[in-house]
Structure formats: C-alpha cells, structure tokens
Amino acid sequence: MVNELRGGRTRLVIGTRGSRLALWQAEWVQARLQELAPDLNIEIRRIRTSGDKILDVPLAKIGGKGLFVKEIEEALLKKEVDVAVHSMKDVPSELPSGLAILCVPPREDPHDAWIGKDRVTLTMLKPGAKVGTSSLRRQAQLLAHRRDITIKMLRGNLDTRLRKLQEGEFDAIVLAAAGLKRLGWDDQITELLTPDVSLPAIGQGALGVEGRSNDEVVRQLLSPLNHYETHVAISAERALLARLEGGCQVPIAGHAVVDHDTVTIHGLVASVDGTRIIREHVTGPAGDASRLGEMLAERLLHAGGDKILNEIYGRA
To answer: Which domain holds residue 299?
Structure first.
C-alpha cells in the first residue's frame, strides 16, 4: 500500500479512534513523523471500536479485553493502516500475533484528576454525593477513602463526561489528567489525586504506537519518538498486568517511575467495594523492568491478591 521513499514508502496511514482526544494523539504522532520525514504523505483514518459503540453498559460488564483497540488491530493485520496510536492503558498485555508496540513516546501526567462541581474536593464532598467513573480501579480506591459516597457509571468521551458533570448528573467525576492536559483543559481539574489515594491505571498517560512486528521500515521511522524512561516504566507495568491477567473488569493498578538506572513500581489489587486493598512495591535495575513487574505481581498475589482475583473471576 506504500510506494518508494524511505525503504519504499511515500505514504503512511495512521489508524485511530475518532474521539477528540484520540485524534489529538494521532495528530501529535503525525506531526512528529512529518518532521522526521517531510516528504512522507501521512494520513489519519478513524476507526470505530467496540468500546465506542457500547456506551450504556459499564466496561466491566462488557467483558473481554481490547475493547478500544480490537478493530484497529484488525485493520493493521489487513494492511489497511500502517500504524495505530493507542492510549497504553487501553492496550491488553497480550498483542495479536504479528503486531508489536513499536514505540512509546514521552509520558504525560499519569495521575487521576478529580473534577468537582463548583470546585468541590474529595475531602469536601458531602456524604451520599454522586461520583462518576467507569473504572472499577477508581471505584475501589475512592470507596476505600470515602465509604459514604455513591459511585455512578460514567461513560463517553471527555467532553461528554464533563458536560454530564455540569448538567448536575454528578457531584464530581474522575478522569485521567493526561487527556485533559493534552486537550488544554487543565483548568477543569479541581485536584490531582495522589497515588496513595488513587494509584493510576497501568499505562495511564502513555501513548503506544503499534504496528506490524515485521515492518522494519516503520519501526526505524518511529524509533526517534521512543522515550527510554517511559518505555522502561511501561514495560514494568505491563509485565505486572500480564501476570495478574488484568482487564477492565478487575480493580488493579500499577505505576512505575524511572530514576536514572533504577525503576520503582507500585502495584495494587483491590476488591470492587474497596474493603480490601493490597499494595506492594519493588525497586531494581531499569534493565530488569519486566522481571520486576512480574516480581511485584507475585508479591501482590502472595499477599492475598490471588483470593480477591479468584473471587472476581468466579474461580474456585
């Protein structure tokens, strides 16, 4: 589908979801690639995913993994697009055969953002207040801090969620700070939730550019966009995710920080109602990021995370 230029290419097609944030992310990658290859014709193709089509059901009840990437990955395998730009928190730990994450650009703020109506904070929130989120991870951690609040399902794109807050459906909502900052909506944030209140989702704030694993030309084109520290952190977090067999129906969290040649990763497994929360962390060489993620998963399981996960998955 591509002609002669760099390794035989004059055209590159980026696959993405059609939301405002997804398009911003795809356009950011497009602009960076255009700087690297000014003569390359780069176009963006919108693809509607299962997660975009089903908006009236909590993600945890839909089940399955890859709700926001499956159709885009199918387009990659069919060579309808050359690369896909994803939010890494949406990408399952196991990729389809023939696909790979070819680069991970610098990470945006990984924190959860609290947006309160009339700027009300989590501490100021009145008992019985309605808090909107579609994330069991957020639900469990918020309930652990405030047993007296009510969690309500909140789906839709960022602008839809913010509109529902302003219309009075909720007293507060929780969103990823990264999306708000990328769209220039920092002023909507009432407060950033610290990791001890809400440990972020695995991969939160990071982008991943996925492509065909045997496409060396595209891999080389993307290589300048790869950010070492973010790549190491995401490798650790996704190893944790893989060992815990996590998905959107499981309240798990993980966040890694790289300091020179050292990586520290914090992880969490919680019951859906927030009555049981298990936290652990490990530190080690950045070169052992994946092994450290697996080690952290084992610690969490050994500390009681296995019992929580077995209950959630309905395993004996």
So the answer is: 238-306
